Each structure stands twice: as structure tokens, then as C-alpha cells.
Amino acid sequence: MNKPLFILIIILFLSGCASKHYEETATGKLSGKLTVQWTRPDEFLFVPDEDDPLTFERSNGQLIIPKNMPTDGGSIPRVFWVFNSFSPWGYAPAFIIHDWLFHMKYCRIPSNEKYDVLIAGQIISEVMKTMMNNYPDVEENKFVLYSMNQAVTSDTAKDLWDNGKCPPPEAQKQIRARAFALYGDTGFEDNIKSEDNVDQVKDLQKMKLTIEF
């Protein structure tokens, strides 16, 4: 078989898989505010809004409401950032909700047993399709939806799901302390100002992103 024909067959196959996955993916309801705070290069803190928290309601009525956690957005290799729709923040709500499911698993947060890597992959697809269907600025792209799903349900993703570790308390405390030094009260009740070199970050420029749905 000649190479151009083989490539065409692969493209047609992937297009068919992408269309099938898109049609089989349910949509839900996305609401609330998404706020992330920069703490150091490539390290952010997701902070739920007290009055209007980021919430995804699945078609079966199940609610997913992420809580405080460190995040890096979508874990997309830098080489793909140049392509449209493949940035670490392009589908930020979907990435945050997906990160939260992993964080629940790692830290044994109640209800984590409801999910596995495949369910988490389905949920990221649901959030992305919901965004594509309801927000004019989000392009409907079946291939992106399918490729993201394949990435987050791959063997590598399963290994991360099975073997990932909850950040140790001291590491979490230091992240919170840096956020406190930069932004003031971030809703944490514990004494996050102690045992961290807050003087090293108190003069850094504040960087905060909030998205409201």
C-alpha cells in the first residue's frame, strides 16, 4: 500500500472514531467561577469561589465541585501548544475538574471510589463537549475531544491514576503559604503563613485568573 493512501485511511479511521465518541458523549451543566493563582513558574493553585464555586453537573445529576488543590492546567506537552485547541488552559474547566478527580484518588478524599481512570476520561469529554455546545468562543472540534480522551485514558494515564501520590502535607502547606503571601486570604483556615519563606514572594507581581460561567 502506498504511503499517501495509508495516511488517508488512518485519517478516515480517526475521523470515524472521533465522530462516534462525540455522538456518544453526554453533556451536562457547567457553572460557577474558576480561579487559579500563580505561585511559581508552572505551578498554580485552584481556589474555589466561596459564593459561586466551579461546578459540573453530569447528565445523571452527579455533581463535581473541585476544592483547593495545586494544578498545572492541562498536562499537554509543550510541542503541541502551537496547535489550536491544544494549550494547557484552552479547556481550563475540563482540566480542573479532571485534575480534581485525580487529586481525590491520590488523597483518598471521600467519594473517590466512584471514579476510575476511564470514568475520569469520560467526564473530561463531557465537560469539553458541554463547553463546545454552549460557549460561542469554544469551537466544536470532534478530533480534539477524541484525542484528549485517548490521552487521559492511555496506559500512561492509568499508571498515573494507580500510582500517583498525594502531595505531602508540608508541600501543600508551602504552596498555600506562597498563595497567601501573593494574594492574601485564600480561604484556608489553617495557619498557612508559618514555616515558609513568605518574604521571598511577597513582592512578586500578583497573577490571578478568574473565569465565570
Characterise this structure.
α1 (3-24) packs across α4 (142-152) and α2 packs antiparallel against α3. A 4-stranded antiparallel sheet has the order 6-3-2-7. A 3-stranded antiparallel sheet has the order 1-4-5, with helices on one face. The protein is built from 6 helices and 7 strands; from the N terminus they run αββββββαααααβ. The longest helix is centred in the N-terminal third of the chain and has 22 residues, at 3-24. By secondary structure, it is of the alpha+beta class.
The gist of it:
InterPro entries: Phage_CGC-2007_Cje0229. Pfam families: DUF1353 (PF07087). This protein is α+β, with helices and mostly antiparallel strands and 213 residues long.
Task: Draw up the topology in text.
Elements: H1 3-24, E1 29-31, E2 33-40, E3 43-46, E4 55-57, E5 63-64, E6 69-71, H2 92-107, H3 117-134, H4 142-152, H5 155-163, H6 169-183, E7 208-212
Antiparallel strand pairs: 1-4, 2-3, 2-7, 3-6, 4-5
Organism: Shewanella surugensis
Pfam families: DUF1353
Protein name: DUF1353 domain-containing protein
Keywords for this structure?
213 residues; alpha+beta; four-stranded antiparallel sheet; three-stranded antiparallel sheet; 7 strands; 43% helix; disordered C terminus; Phage_CGC-2007_Cje0229; DUF1353 domain-containing protein
